[in-house]
Here is the input.
Amino acid sequence: MRIHSFFSLLVCVLISLSGNAQIYLSNASFEGAPQDATVPVGWFPCELGTTPDILPGFWGVRKESSEGETYVGLITREDGTWESIGQRLKRPLKRKECYEMSLDLAHANVYDSYVDVIKVRVWGSTRKCSKDQLLFESPFIDHEDWKKYEFQFTTKAFINYIIIEAHYKEGSFSHRGNILVDNISPIKDCIRASLE
Here is the structure.
């Protein structure tokens, strides 16, 4: 009986410790009433002219979410502008540590006239909306089905904010593209020792 109690206590402690290593984003699956030109609750705009859409239901986008009821749509425009949203982390990511996370991405073949294929970038920053470290850049997302993209990164400095940015090819002529984002995982410590 004592051995069973010891192992139960050990399991509870390990679960508690692993939970502390995760940083959950606020509204990570972009839940809210579907609306156009609306920043999801828990997020703020980071680029001038950022008017993301809470989907489905607008601009001809009818795709179901990968998790929950809604997701966010971000676009790039022919005038060289793009949309990005960010939020402050509940606690900062430490310097020179390895972290991992994931997000679900898709492309809408119908999104008013914003139908070109683009990619997403994930930035870490010390200040609101500053882009201090590129944490992840997806390939061009041309699939309509949701796919999970997992990635790891090692921080160069303390990171207080995360930014999700629609992006197109470097040096290319700007165009009207869209990317759909849903189901961002908690940020977790990598399963390896931190860097010295």
About this structure: Confidence is low (pLDDT under 50) at residues 6-19. The helical segments are 2-20. Residues 2-20 form the longest helix (19 residues). The CA atoms of residues 14 and 106 lie 35 Å apart.
